[in-house]
Amino acid sequence: MSTRQIRLRVDGVEAVAKLRDDLSPRMAEAFWQTLPVETSISHAMWTGSAVYYYPGDSPLSEVEDLEYPVCSIYPGFVVARPRGSEVMFAYGPAEYRW
């Protein structure tokens, strides 16, 4: 399977991200199923250089376990909490507070 990519666009700035099926296959598939997403984002105030949104009722809520848990989030990474309660995008160094 080829690597799936998504395009992120926020206030006229665009970036391309790769879904890491090799690290988190269930979460990557669930995220893919939620696309396209149009929502408001908020700065993750205590996390560092990251923004987040609440996906609500979506396929992300069906993923109950951490497949590839992280604390440090590097620029370009997208992470999601189990059960899809939050999706975070890092644009600089950030720390995820579980």
Quick summary of this structure?
It contains 1 helix and 7 strands; from the N terminus they run E-E-H-E-E-E-E-E.
What do you see in this structure?
This protein has 1 helix and 7 strands. With 98 residues, it is mainly beta. Strands 3, 4, 5, 6 and 7 form a 5-stranded antiparallel beta sheet that branches. A two-stranded antiparallel sheet has the order 1-2.
The low-confidence runs, each spanning 5 or more residues with pLDDT under 50, are none
The largest sheet, given as strand count, sense and whether it forms a barrel, is: 5 strands, antiparallel
Q: What is the gyration radius calculated from CA atoms?
A: 13 Å
Q: State the shape.
A: globular
Number of strands: 7
Tell me the series of helices and strands, N- to C-terminal. EEHEEEEE
Number of helices: 1
- Please report which band the strand proportion falls in: under 5%, 5-15%, 15-25%, 25-35%, 35-45% or over 45%: 25-35%
What would the average pLDDT be, to the nearest integer? Answer: 87
Tell me the helix content.
Answer: 10-25%
- Provide the structure class: mainly beta
How far apart are the first and last residues' alpha carbons, in Å?
A: 32 Å
Features:
98 residues; mainly beta; two-stranded antiparallel ribbon
Secondary-structure blueprint:
Elements: E1 5-10, E2 13-18, H1 25-34, E3 42-43, E4 48-53, E5 72-73, E6 78-80, E7 87-95
Antiparallel strand pairs: 1-2, 3-4, 4-7, 5-7, 6-7
